[in-house]
Design goal:
CATH superfamily: Amino acid/polyamine transporter I
Distance between the termini: 50 Å
Largest sheet: 2 strands, antiparallel
CATH architecture: Up-down Bundle
Shape: globular
Radius of gyration: 22 Å
Membrane topology: Multi-pass membrane protein
Number of strands: 2
Structural class: mainly alpha
Number of helices: 24
CATH topology: Amino acid/polyamine transporter I
Pfam families: CstA (PF02554)
Transmembrane segments: 70-98, 130-151, 157-177, 186-205, 217-238, 247-267, 279-299, 320-344, 364-393, 426-443, 449-472, 479-502, 508-530
Strand content: under 5%
Subcellular location: Cell membrane
CATH class: Mainly Alpha
Order of helices and strands: HHHHHHHHHHHHEEHHHHHHHHHHHH
Strand order of the largest sheet: 1-2
InterPro entries: CstA (IPR051605), CstA_N (IPR003706)
């Protein structure tokens, strides 16, 4: 079988899913443009700022993609490429896209607030407190890990650092010009074309003007940038940078598909399904935890309800941004699988262990892009730069999300100090950055990171639970949400149980305890949800 045929079949399936199942899900959520979106009713020029759907899609896609749909699928091919492809397509359509659009829809009807506040409204204050503490801790961990990854990348490849800095200044300039342009479509298109051309030129310029700094200085610089990105109006930095950066990923995906069509490589890996791996564990539940981004990822619910819902110009934009953005990410995950299944299983295992998933993806995809007549060295470097650029996007988005989460946690508390923290974005962001620095200084993030996969999928299960309760209380049939919800809880609880037991046997008591606590958290929120439904299901729905 040729890789071209796999990509074509996957693209057709995802397109049809968007047109057919996407319409079904969109109607179920009852989104309606006659209602003003929170970006208008709560417009503050900082967090709530309406924008064109293509701009919001760029922000959302850049924020949710990162390295997730690359690393996870490539590692999961260990179990076989066929189960990986099936989970990406089925998970992306029936799980991830429903999860992302549902999180966005519930947030639109809750003043653009995050999943934590929606849990408070639908399940209760205790549920909100548990979820917010969990999600905030997860975000601090992600900030610490990605700051470490990006700093090490900048140290090892100063050209990537230079290009990334150029991108930031370009984004600020684009944001100012775009504000001047306003809603004039032709002018916006021209500004976009110029911005994208300059962005690709800066890819080349970065290789010519490498920027060299020490690791610790990069860490402080990155977190200082994340602070500014969190408190700066979204229209001046976050929106334009993510929008322009999305064209890097679009360009990489288009070039990859074109390269595959030209080279028409055959799938060399066998179709064998591996039930268990010595390094990973059993295919169930590990496959469904390893491939998160690309199928379903709890982190998406934080982005969809945290930053994206505050930028949608109208409710109908949620379909292309939420449902469509997830399916684009699923296609990226299919491309990631395609980058390695042109190898034999033996070569794949050897190179994955020696190079790691990102390097394997860069060399594999770079080789395909090189068939278009581009230098292979440049193509590989371009792919690596694209991955790094999206890691930086994840860093600043996570910082803003952590700030929202912290503010929403304290907004219900009457104490003056709590209200200051809830209302002052500078102070709350400062707390986030300080906690991230302390985590990095302690080195604990490297110990805690292995549990992130299970924690991330627990976020997804909890978000689906919240969406299901929200729909049921509105007397809307929620089977299309509850089936994915029950499956994800099964996956998550099985994964956490196995993880806790494994670490207990290996005397990794800290991780075993954390896994056990997350297990208890999941059970507690399920109990609170059913208690809430039993008590209030007959009451008028909250919107």
């Amino acid at each position: 079988m040729s890789l071209s045929l796999l990509l074509l079949i996957s693209a057709v399936i995802l397109f049809l899913a968007y047109r057919l199942y996407g319409n079904f899900v969109y109607k179920k959520f009852g989104l309606d443009d006659s209602r003003k979106a929170p970006s208008h009713t709560h417009r503050d020029g900082v967090d709530y700022e309406p924008s064109k759907p293509i701009v919001v899609l760029g922000h959302h896609f850049a924020s949710i993609a990162g390295a997730g749909p690359i690393v996870g699928p490539i590692i999961a091919v260990t179990f076989g490429w066929i189960p990986a492809v099936i989970w990406i397509l089925a998970g992306g359509i029936f799980f991830g896209a429903v999860h992302d659009l549902g999180s966005m829809a519930a947030s639109l009807r809750t003043e653009g607030k995050s999943i934590g506040v929606i849990i408070r409204n639908q399940i209760g204050a205790k549920g909100k407190q548990l979820f917010v503490l969990f999600s905030f801790s997860t975000l601090i961990l992600v900030i610490g890990v990605f700051a470490d990854i990006i700093a090490k990348t900048f140290v090892s490849n100063p050209g990537v650092a230079s290009a990334s800095i150029f991108f930031i200044f370009l984004a600020v300039a684009f944001g100012f010009v775009n504000r001047m342009v306003g809603n004039r479509n032709i002018a916006f298109i021209l500004v976009t074309v110029v911005g994208v051309i300059l962005m690709y030129y800066f890819v080349y310029l970065g290789t010519q003007l490498p920027f060299v700094l020490d690791y610790k200085i990069w860490i402080l610089g990155l977190l200082a940038y994340a602070f500014l990105a969190s408190v700066t109006p979204v229209s001046l930095l976050l929106q334009p940078r993510d929008y322009l950066n999305s064209y890097l990923l679009y360009g990489m995906m288009i070039a990859a598909v074109a390269g595959v069509l030209v080279a028409n490589p055959q799938i060399e890996m066998d179709t064998r399904v591996v039930a268990s791996s010595e390094s990973l564990g059993y295919v169930f539940p590990v496959l469904f935890v390893t491939i998160a981004c690309g199928a379903i990822s709890g982190f998406h619910s934080l982005v969809a309800s945290g930053t994206t819902s505050k930028q949608l110009d109208k409710e109908s934009d949620a379909k292309i941004v939420g449902f469509g953005g997830m399916l684009i990410e699923s296609f990226l995950a299919i491309i990631s699988v395609g980058a390695v299944i042109v190898l034999s299983r033996t070569e794949y295992v050897e190179r994955l262990g020696a190079e790691g998933p990102v390097a394997l993806f860069s060399t594999g995809l770079g080789g395909m892009i090189a068939t278009l007549g581009i230098s292979e060295t440049f193509a590989v470097g371009f792919v690596a730069l694209t991955v790094s650029a999206f890691a930086l996007t994840t860093l600043d988005t996570c910082t803003r999300l952590a700030r929202f989460t912290l503010q929403e946690y304290f907004e219900d508390m009457p104490q003056p100090a709590a209200q200051v923290l809830a209302k002052n974005r500078y102070l709350s962001t400062f707390v986030v950055v300080i906690l991230s620095i302390l985590l990095l200084a302690s080195g604990e993030f490297s110990t805690l990171w292995p549990i992130f996969g299970s924690a991330n999928q627990l976020l997804a299960a909890l978000a689906l639970l919240t969406i299901a309760v929200w729909l049921i209380k509105k007397n809307i049939p929620a089977t299309f949400v509850t089936i994915p919800m029950f499956f994800m809880f099964t996956v998550t609880l099985a994964s956490l149980g196995l993880f806790a037991w494994k670490n207990y046997q290996e005397k990794g008591y800290v991780l075993a305890v954390i896994a056990a606590l997350l297990f208890v958290l999941a059970i507690s929120l399920i109990f609170l949800a059913f208690k809430s439904l039993k008590k209030e299901v007959k009451e008028p729905a909250k919107v």
